[in-house]
Amino acid sequence: MLQLLIGIVLFFGVHSASIVALPLRDRMVAKNEVAWKAVYALASLAGIVLMARGYAELRSAPTVLYATPYWMRHVAALLLLPVFIFFIAPYFPGRIKTALKHPQLVAVKLWAVAHLLVNGMLADVLLFGSFLAWAIVDRISLKRRPQRPLPGAPESGINDVIIVVVGLALYVVFAFWAHEWLFGVRPFVAR
Asked: Fewest CB atoms within 10 Å of the CB: 28, 58, 69, 123?
């Protein structure tokens, strides 16, 4: 469990720099943006590796906190349907990005809630609950801080079509192949 917790603290610690220490983060970027990005990327990567290893270790000796009915898997699948669409929306600005304001955070919240609906072990609650809590806090903090520009395509109505097609294609690839390949779990197979 320690690896998972250290990974969570490391990953969300660096991802929370703008939430809890915006002036410090901005000074670091102004001083040396490349160094800041390198530290950010390395800390994020180390956090992901520790979270993945800790999650796998904790799931090998499962502590069940709750169980949900089988049909909840269908609810989770529906909640996950727009996740890839929303996640790429900031890079292809259009009506979806405008309506959601922070579509990536909406994607993270939907992803986390969907996984919490169907996974009730301690490892799941720690991992997915951390993502959900962070996304909520980050969204609240965005009301108090300026939004940084993201690189991406120019704003266009066609961008919505692009992200829906690409997002749904990514969903299909991930749900029917990549999820099992990466995590060993087939989402649409009865257990």
From this structure: 69
Residue type, 88: I
Helix (H, G, I), strand (E, B) or coil at 149: coil
Which segments within the chain are labelled E, that is strand? none
Q: Would you say 141 and 154 are in contact if contact means Cβ atoms under 8 Å apart?
A: no
Beta bridge partners of 121: 64
The angle at the Cα of 147, spanning 146 to 149, to the nearest 5 degrees, equals 135
Residues ≥6 apart with Cβ < 8 Å to 145:
18, 22
Tens of pLDDT, residues 1-24: 999 999 999 999 999 999 999 889
| 12/137 Cα distance (integer angstroms) | 11
Query: Residue 7 class from Cβ within 10 Å (0-12 exposed, 13-18 middle, 19+ buried)?
Result: buried
* Mean pLDDT value across residues 109-119: 97
Q: How many CA atoms lie within 13 A of 134 on its CB side?
A: 22
